[in-house]
Each structure stands twice: as structure tokens, then as C-alpha cells.
Design goal:
Helix content is about 30%, strand content about 5%. By secondary structure, the chain is mainly alpha-helical. The strands form three sheets. A two-stranded antiparallel ribbon has the order 1-6. Strands 2-5 form a two-stranded antiparallel ribbon. A two-stranded antiparallel sheet has the order 3-4. α2 packs antiparallel against α4 and α2 packs antiparallel against α7. The C terminus is likely disordered.
């Protein structure tokens, strides 16, 4: 019998949860690139007959060439039965779908709901159902309307459709990609200092700025509406408006090198 060796690639980047906690909400352009990258990943996951079931900020890595979905610890095949007991809730309150929160069967639309909540978090710094105890969050997810008032367009319209209580009214991952017009994360899709180096120094293109200016750029990011100009996002004149490219920060996560094909960190299963 041969020996199986599962190899995974090292991804140099922080999680979305850590990035927002450290630097604040992402600019609108970065959120739209994030949406496109995650929708592409979900297309691959769902095409493989799987449902992730725990898409949340801490399970998304922000790599320099696009986001990666990680942790398939509670994923399941869409046609699987008997994996959980009836009425057992599995997932993360505030980011799970109403059907998942109530312990009902979930499919691909459940991941789309989670995507909407995740995008709202990335653009505002908070989940669309606020904070609080697990019972309070579950009640809001099932019965309450999401808070999307602070989300900028076009993020708001996409998030609201993803957060429909009716799974059949949510867009499919392929439809989201089509609506975004083929936008794909490329070098520079993340603003500095989210895409900064492991030691926090600015990328070469802005390293020549004065110490005072660099210190100002290193402050926590402001809301998307406040980041109106490239200069406000730490991008010097003539650079791309999506922000300056830089090496991602090291966080010790190992996932597949293909943005849409990711393994289970704990079990080494590759889609």
C-alpha cells in the first residue's frame, strides 16, 4: 500500500477578521474584489457538491492575489444525510443563515447568506445583525432585518439580496460573479497597511514619504465613505486606486494555492 502525502501551500496573509480589527473597514473597491473572489471560491465548493456552512471573517484569508476560504471542519455534501441530529445548530451566530440557525437542512443558498453577512462586516466593521449573546443573534438572524444603512452602494444592494430570509430569493454565486462584471482580485486589491509587510513598514512605493505622513497612513483605516481619494487610502498620485501592493503579513495559515480550491486545514482534504 502506498503512502499518501497531502501537500498544502503557505498563504502569507491575515484573516479578514484580524485585518478589520486592526485597520477598520475595507474600501468599497476592495470589498467588491473580495465579493468576486469569494463568489468564485463558492462556485468551486458548490460545484463539488459541498456546502461550507461556516463562512465568516476568521475563515477568510486576505492573500495578495485574492481571498482564500479555509476551514472545512463542518462542511458537508449537499446530498448527505444523518450528519447532525435534528435541531442541532452548527455554525457561527451572526453569520449563519436562518435555516441553519433553526437547525434545518442547508444548501448552497446558506453559504450565500453567510457571504452577505461577511461582506457587510468587511465594509462596515460590524456584522449586519449586531453583537450580543448567541440567543439574541440567532433571533435577529431568523426574525430581524439586517442593518445595512451604513453600507455604501453597490455593496448594500448585493448584501441585502444575499441576506434574504427566503433561500430561493438569494443570488447564486455564479450570478454574483456575472453582476460584478468579471472583477477579479489582482495585485493591489488590498489597501496598505492591510497588505503591509510582516513588520508593518510601508511598501517601497510610499517608503519615501515623510515619517509624519507614513505614521498617518499607518493609523486605523476610516470608513469607505471617508476614503474618498487615493491619497486617503495611502496610494501616491499615479498609483492604482485599489491601494498599494505589498507582501501580506505572516499568520501561519496553510491552505491550497488555488483561490477557488481549498483544503481542510485539519484533515488535509483537497476539493
Amino acid at each position: 500500500m502506498g503512502t499518501r502525502i497531502d501537500a498544502t501551500a503557505y498563504i502569507d496573509g491575515s484573516s479578514l477578521a484580524d485585518a478589520v480589527a486592526a485597520h477598520g473597514p475595507l474600501p468599497v473597491s476592495s470589498v467588491l474584489h473580495l465579493a468576486a473572489g469569494l463568489a468564485e471560491g463558492l462556485c468551486a465548493i458548490h460545484a463539488a457538491g459541498l456546502v461550507h456552512r461556516d463562512l465568516k471573517p476568521s475563515n477568510v484569508l486576505l492573500a495578495g492575489d485574492g481571498p482564500r476560504i479555509i476551514d472545512f471542519g463542518i462542511s458537508r455534501a449537499t446530498d448527505a444525510t444523518g450528519l447532525t441530529m435534528s435541531g442541532l445548530m452548527i455554525g457561527s451566530p451572526g453569520f449563519m443563515s436562518p435555516e441553519q440557525a433553526e437547525g434545518r437542512e442547508v444548501g448552497a443558498p446558506s453559504d450565500i447568506f453567510s457571504l452577505g453577512a461577511l461582506l457587510a462586516f468587511s465594509a462596515s466593521g460590524e456584522g449586519p445583525f449586531g453583537e450580543g449573546s448567541t440567543p439574541a443573534l440567532i433571533y435577529r438572524v431568523v426574525h430581524g432585518a439586517p442593518d445595512t444603512a451604513r453600507l455604501p452602494e453597490p455593496v448594500r444592494s448585493l448584501v441585502e439580496r444575499c441576506l434574504s430570509k427566503n433561500p430561493q430569493q438569494r443570488p447564486k454565486s455564479g450570478q454574483i460573479l456575472d453582476e460584478l462584471g468579471g472583477v477579479q482580485p489582482t495585485a493591489g486589491w488590498l489597501p496598505w497597511p492591510v497588505a503591509g509587510s510582516p513588520h508593518g513598514e510601508p511598501p517601497p512605493e510610499i517608503a519615501g514619504l515623510s515619517a509624519a505622513r507614513a505614521a498617518g497612513l499607518a493609523a486605523p483605516a476610516r470608513t469607505p465613505t471617508e476614503l474618498a481619494s487615493p491619497a486617503d487610502r495611502g496610494v501616491p498620485p499615479g498609483q492604482a486606486t485599489l491601494g498599494s501592493a505589498g507582501a501580506g503579513r505572516t499568520n501561519g495559515n496553510n491552505v491550497s494555492g488555488d483561490p477557488g480550491r481549498v483544503p481542510d486545514q485539519r484533515h488535509g482534504a483537497d476539493l
